Amino acid sequence: MTVIESTWTEFRATNRRVQDACLRMLAALPMAYGSPEWEALPNDHPEKYRAMRRAAEAWRRYWQPEAVSTRRDAEQDRIDRAACAQLRAVSHNVSEAADWHAIGRGPTWRELQRRRYPWLYDPDWQSPAEISRGRDYPGYLPAQFPTTTGQEAA
């Protein structure tokens, strides 16, 4: 017998033992509380008491704060996932319905830069500081009149 065959034989034997143990555990479990088999048992049968104790313990654990919060968190997660799925579907519907080529025709980055920093792009542009210092530009009132003294004006 090779190593692989012996390992396989050991595995099958172990697997059979595990299966037998599981079957024994299932046979040892009490029947379900309120099931037809449970109803058929006499009232003083020990299996009936085991099923009642098991149901009472399950009910007690069901209302423990940790179990309640776990169920509440699971329910909230389910609701959140459903809401996210709905929002995703709605946003896809909106984005597919809109003509984004027509909507998104705003200024380009280059146009915004030209508006923010006109002195970089227009050589004739004068800054507000230059205008306030009295540099000549069209429409500047003192530049339109010759310099006069007070005696000539009289």
Structure description:
This protein has 154 residues and is an all-alpha fold. It contains ten helices and no strands. The protein is elongated, with a radius of gyration of 44 Å. 71% of the residues lie in helices and 0% in strands. The protein has helices spanning 3-28, 36-40, 46-62, 65-97, 100-103, 109-116, 118-121, 128-132, 141-144, 150-153.
Describe how the helices and strands are arranged:
Blueprint: H1 3-28, H2 36-40, H3 46-62, H4 65-97, H5 100-103, H6 109-116, H7 118-121, H8 128-132, H9 141-144, H10 150-153
Task: Please give a handful of descriptors for the protein shown.
154 residues, single chain, elongated, mainly alpha, 71% helix
Give a brief outline of the structure:
By secondary structure, the protein is mainly α.
Structural class, by secondary structure, is mainly alpha
- Strand residue content: under 5%
Tell me the total number of β-strands.
Answer: 0
Number of H- or I-type helical stretches:
10
Distance between the termini: 134 Å
**What is the string of SSEs from the N terminus onward?**
HHHHHHHHHH
Q: Please give the radius of gyration in angstroms.
A: 44 Å
Shape: elongated
